[in-house]
Design goal:
single chain, 375 residues, binds flavin-adenine dinucleotide, 29% helix, alpha/beta
Length: 375
């Protein structure tokens, strides 16, 4: 039976980045993903915020034009609140390109990627895989998304507080718009969250997300309803792609690691409970995960795993978890109308600008100094 140091389950951004960092430390790393190609089944809009773009090296050619304008609409769509930043705040990435790049970087570091392979559970170090022979893994990294099977297999915490999102993506006639992020607070189509159009002059993403229990008509139907009269939506200038998936918004999970493995990315609940942004945490948290996993594999000292502490990370999200609860409570158009009216005031605009243009996407995680490299 094949043996590896680390099996990473999931070749999303969190899994590929963690795999690369562990392979760079000299470990034998295998990544398994149930998808047959990384260019299909994309589950994200791909908006990267300024802080991520500043801190991580994403190839420029994979990023769309910068977005500085945000328009917030109430359910009536009347008198929206416009906010402009002096800085480039967002760039929408070509996500298939980003995954291909992350895969190349992981492979260049020595990791192997097995596609069409599903994790089906593990016992005493032997991992059962559908689509491939079982492997013996010293450590398993669960990067398998919001509904992580690895988390269950390892007996770690699982996400219970999920939004569901869906969007349409299509090219637009190039250069015809000022890149703008339109956000609509309308509980009829996006209960507890937002509907959005982001058009950077190259591509438009039109989406809705909300609590599934309040989306009785179904997320696809609500998306169609929203898309039919979405503000700022340009006519498609090419094929329309569909994306969607669950978004964990209950905050970072408490129990993230055990001697058999750990969780990263959506599997760890590492998504901002307020903005639902999860791409920055994928990169930031993977660095801590790879450092801690590397130290543990080198030393065998289980105390090292305490540094991967969900409770400590979660504590830094208190304010955002509170705002999430308030956001979740916006279930009637009248309340949403009043909430946007509050954002028209000076204090409201300042608060909105802090959330939309601030630096607080995911707390910077102090990375402990690694132990000496594996021999
Ligand atoms: C509609 C939508 C829009 C979003 N837009 C943004 C945005 O613009 N900006 C932002 O910051 N965040 C956004 N998010 C959140 C963000 O996309 C996620 O937080 C992030 O992509 C999570 O990455 P990940 O690597 O943890 O998980 P994923 O990207 O979900 O990767 C998990 C991988 O695991 C694989 N897998 C699952 N189960 C198994 C198994 N049993 N065996 C093998 N493989 C398995 C899956 O095939 C998948 O490839 C959005 C989310 C949604 C749903």
């Amino acid at each position: 039976m094949r043996s590896v140091d680390v099996l990473v389950v999931g070749a999303g951004l969190a899994g590929l980045h963690t795999a690369r960092l562990l392979a760079e430390q000299g470990f034998d790393v295998l990544v398994a993903d149930r998808r047959r190609t990384l260019s299909t089944g994309v589950r994200t809009t791909g908006i990267f915020v300024r802080r991520t773009l500043d801190d991580f090296d994403l190839p420029d050619h994979l990023l769309g034009p910068a977005v500085r304008e945000v328009v917030l609409y109430p359910p009536s769509r009347r008198a929206p609140v416009r906010l402009s930043s002096e800085r480039d705040e967002y760039r929408v990435a070509d996500m298939p390109g980003v995954y291909a790049h992350a895969r190349r970087m992981a492979e260049a570091a020595g990791a192997r990627i097995a596609l069409g392979v599903r994790y089906a559970g593990s016992a005493t170090g032997v991992v059962r895989l559908e689509g491939a022979d079982p492997v013996v893994a010293r450590f398993v990294v669960g990067a398998d998304g919001a509904r992580s099977t690895v988390a269950r297999g390892l007996g770690l915490d699982v996400n219970r507080h999920l939004l569901i999102g869906a969007e349409l993506v299509h090219p637009t006639a190039s250069g015809t718009t000022v890149p703008t992020f339109h956000c609509v607070l309308d509980p009829r189509v996006a209960p507890g969250y937002l509907a959005w159009v982001i058009d950077d002059g190259r591509n438009a993403h039109v989406g809705v997300a909300g609590y599934p229990d309040a989306m009785r008509a179904g997320v696809r139907h609500l998306l169609e309803e929203f898309a039919a009269r979405a503000p700022g939506r340009a006519t498609p200038a090419g094929p329309v792609e569909r994306r969607g998936g669950p978004i964990p918004v209950g905050g970072v999970l408490r129990r993230l690691a055990c001697p058999a493995g750990l969780l990263v990315g959506d599997a760890a609940g590492a998504v901002s409970p307020l903005t639902a942004g999860g791409l920055d945490p994928c990169l930031r948290m993977s660095e801590l995960a790879a450092t801690v996993a590397g130290d543990y594999l080198r030393t065998g000292d289980q105390r090292v795993l305490r540094r991967y502490d969900g409770k400590a990370l979660r504590a830094r999200f208190r304010g955002r978890l509170l705002l999430r609860r308030l956001f979740a409570g916006v279930r009637s158009p009248a309340v949403a109308e009043a909430a946007v009216a509050a954002l028209r005031t000076r204090a409201g605009r300042a608060a909105a600008a802090r959330i939309l243009f601030g630096d607080g996407s995911f707390p910077t995680v102090p990375i402990p100094d690694p132990e000496p490299r594996a021999s």
